Amino acid sequence: MDSIYFDYLILPLLIFMARICDVSLDTIRVIMVSRGYRKYAPLIGFVQVLIWIITITRIMENLDNWLTYVAYAAGFGMGTYIGMRIEEKIAMGYELLRIITRSEVDDLVRALRQKGYAVTSVAGEGKDGAVGIVFLILKRKATRDVITLVKQYNPKAYYTIEDIRFVADTSYL
């Protein structure tokens, strides 16, 4: 009785949880490599593969247990989701925010500078006439706050956000 309980309930649950950890770590590792945080990526990769080997070994030992397959696949899906949420919360790296607006940008620029953001603004020419262009390089964690300010001061502003892999001098930020 204990073997059935373990094989069909506990083991699939453990595989599901291990796969969540494995895939979440993989998501974080890939993002770290792509953003230039290469110190920690090998360590994360080591732990990730260790979890994967232990998990796949248990599945191979229980090939007749279809619940382990379902748990493995479900853990992959959930791990992908959780990995993205974790990355969203830690928000590593920098972004370039480019704001283009037809209305005056002085109030927005002033508000951003009062909040401590380094802002570059230039006058430009758009399809329908003069535009204000504002550039900010900021930490990803600050992006939502800045977008809130943009919407407050220039609700019809057009903006784009780009990931930046490397910032040479963060003293300006």
Describe this structure in words.
This protein is an alpha+beta fold and 173 residues long. Helix content is 57%, strand content 20%. Strand 2 and strand 3 form a beta hairpin. The chain is elongated, with a radius of gyration of 24 Å.
Dominant shape: elongated
> Level of helix content?
55-70%
The H-and-E topology, N to C, reads as HHHEHEEHE
Poorly predicted ranges: none
What's the number of extended β-strand segments? 4
So how many helices? Answer: 5
Q: What percentage of the residues does DSSP assign to strands (E)?
A: 15-25%
Compose a concise summary of this entry.
It is a multi-pass membrane protein. Helix 1 (2-34) packs antiparallel against helix 2 and helix 4 (106-114) runs antiparallel to helix 5 (143-153).
Q: Top keywords for this entry?
A:
173 residues, alpha+beta, 4-stranded antiparallel sheet, 4 strands, Alpha-Beta Plaits, 57% helix, elongated
Lay out the secondary structure.
Layout: H1 2-34, H2 41-61, H3 66-90, E1 94-101, H4 106-114, E2 119-126, E3 129-139, H5 143-153, E4 158-164
Antiparallel strand pairs: 1-3, 1-4, 2-3
